[in-house]
């Protein structure tokens, strides 16, 4: 399997298979949302679109980066979301990088959204599909965010015929990243210091997450390798 690691601005073609990585925090939060019972996560184009979706469907739950804001129910923090009951709910998520990355590759035949908490399930799904090439979208820092690149490289290694890969160096890189420092010190609004540890829980969940267009919306759902969507 050939792996490409690209930032969002570097995406100049439509990949066949894309893995969109946002460790701190979009796709750690999405995984927690599924664990708390969410049926699906809708990836919104903008804050205005998220609010418009909520206005048409009052039962949906809206989630954003940064401080709480009128019309939004949750913030993009695993620590602040992990005790929320989302049973059967649709969550509308808009973040600075993670949702943007997924929407940028929405025409790919398979779009997976990943972080360390779903790393092994994501790698297993890639091994099952056995694509010739995978584009890893490193969403943070225009492709230079160390936590996202470390996670992408780790998943790529595990997806390559199940090679044994020591996760420790990748987790250390992520834990020493600028994003981790900002979360620990409270620089980022709408976060908690516990977010770092939660984002670095390797393989916390047994599922992967696949996104696809449904009725004009980019919808993220949890999948196991056996449930992988067809090419």
From TrEMBL:
The keyword Phosphoprotein appears for this protein: no
Cofactor annotation: Mg(2+)
User: Which terms are listed as keywords in the entry?
Assistant: Hydrolase, Magnesium
UniProt cross-references to Pfam families, sorted A to Z: 2-ph_phosp
Write down the chemical reaction(s) this protein catalyses: (2R)-O-phospho-3-sulfolactate + H2O = (2R)-3-sulfolactate + phosphate
Protein name, please? Probable 2-phosphosulfolactate phosphatase
Q: Does the keyword Magnesium apply?
A: yes
Q: What is the lineage of its organism?
A: Bacteria, Bacillati, Actinomycetota, Actinomycetes, Kitasatosporales
Q: Which family does it belong to?
A: Belongs to the ComB family.
Q: Which InterPro entries match?
A: ComB-like, ComB-like_sf
Give this protein's Gene Ontology molecular function annotations.
Answer: 2-phosphosulfolactate phosphatase activity; magnesium ion binding; sulfopyruvate decarboxylase activity
Instruction: Name the domain of life this protein comes from.
Output: Bacteria
Protein's organism: Streptomyces sp. R17
């Amino acid at each position: 399997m050939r792996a490409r690691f690209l930032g969002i601005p570097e995406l100049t073609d439509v990949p066949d298979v894309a893995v969109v990585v946002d460790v701190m925090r979009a796709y750690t939060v999405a995984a927690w949302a599924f664990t708390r019972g969410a049926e699906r996560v809708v990836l919104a184009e903008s804050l205005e679109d998220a609010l418009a979706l909520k206005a048409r469907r009052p039962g949906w739950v809206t989630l954003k980066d940064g401080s709480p804001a009128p019309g939004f129910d949750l913030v993009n923090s695993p620590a602040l979301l992990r005790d929320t009951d989302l049973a059967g709910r649709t969550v509308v998520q808009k973040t600075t990088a993670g949702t943007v990355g997924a929407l940028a590759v929405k025409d790919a035949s398979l779009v997976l959204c990943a972080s360390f908490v779903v790393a092994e399930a994501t790698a297993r799904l890639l091994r099952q599909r056995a694509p010739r090439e995978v584009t890893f979208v490193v969403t943070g820092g225009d492709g230079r965010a160390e936590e996202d690149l470390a996670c992408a490289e780790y998943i790529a290694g595990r997806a390559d015929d199940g090679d044994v890969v020591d996760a420790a160096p990748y987790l250390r890189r992520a834990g020493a990243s600028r994003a981790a420092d900002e979360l620990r010190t409270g620089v980022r609004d709408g976060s908690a210091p516990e977010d770092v540890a939660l984002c670095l829980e390797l393989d916390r969940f047994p599922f992967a997450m696949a996104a696809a267009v449904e009725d004009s919306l980019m919808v993220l759902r949890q999948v196991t390798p056996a449930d992988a969507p067809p090419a």
